[in-house]
Amino acid sequence: xxxxxxxxxxxxxxxxxxxxxxxxxxxxxxxxxxxxxxxxxxxxxxxxxxxxxxxxxxxxxxxxxxxxxxxxxxxxxxxxxxxxxxxxxxxxxxxxxxxxxxxxxxxxxxxxxxxxxxxxxxxxxxxxxxxxxxxxxxxxxxxxxxxxxxxxxxxxxxxxxxxxxxxxxxxxxxxxxxxxxxxxxxxxxxxxxxxxxxxxxxxxxxxxxxxxxxxxxxxxxxxxxxxxxxxxxxxxxxxxxxxxxxxxxxxxxxxxxxxxxxxxxxxxxxxxxxxxxxxxxxxxxxxxxxxxxxxxxxxxxxxxxxxxxxxxxxxxxxxxxxxxxxxxxxxxxxxxxxxxxxxxxxx
Length: 347
Prior knowledge:
Layout: H1 3-10, H2 21-28, E1 31-32, H3 36-44, H4 52-60, E2 64-70, E3 73-78, H5 82-96, H6 98-103, H7 108-122, E4 128-129, H8 130-139, H9 148-158, E5 162-164, E6 173-176, H10 177-180, H11 189-204, H12 209-216, H13 220-230, E7 235-239, E8 242-246, E9 259-262, H14 267-270, H15 284-287, E10 297-300, E11 303-313, E12 316-323, H16 329-346
Antiparallel strand pairs: 1-3, 2-3, 4-6, 5-6, 7-8, 9-10, 10-11, 11-12
């Protein structure tokens, strides 16, 4: 089983099949997006004919949203999926961050008051930039210094009160989730577990139960329960003592031989606890930069062959690969083609 190239296909990196960025996000369930511009490219490279502007237009329309649905990390999530994902996945995160909130003197009373102030400030479809929201809280006697503001934001987003709206220039805005996402739905917990498992293994497979638990932040017990309820619609194969689950159609197209520029924290690298199937052990440290950052990488034939950096100037974008070994002619041509595609995406 060619794990890397199957993932390229199922994640829609190879041969994108969607014209709508929102369909890409819905298919992947969640797209990591704490690096906002990188998240735009993660969606764009999986969307036919996408530009950075078209992906941002989908966000501005409310088709998908940026919030904290799992692992305490920002993701893009389809509007309809936000409520049930938050309800399923954030309780463990909230419990895990309780001690940090106590250190910052953010107790239940302060957080409840912060919520009331935010509701009043954002009600009626209003949107505020983060700095403006901090000012509102500070004026109400709720201090936002020493990262208190960020923790208040994250907590209220995980509770489903607020989320990010469209950007105001280069600054992100905040809005009330119920007003911005009227199509969001709730699911019973067991149904939500099955929905998450089905869509993860369909879009990210081949993957193991431990990959799913890592990606979602669920306990292994809950991850198994979710998989058990939907496994009849999946296939599995055991390789090297690990059981991989994936959708029934597993054909690998010729485009999986192409070269792809992936952003930092792309789902292709971040969504698996074990990344040895796509990154050799002697190169893993180059991909995992300081502070746990998963670097932007270049993928060829399903394997990570390099990291890369970009410089944007008035005349265009310069992509600089940092290969792990000498590149062959096809890899060089592939990187050039991938860089051109990225430049077109940026406009």
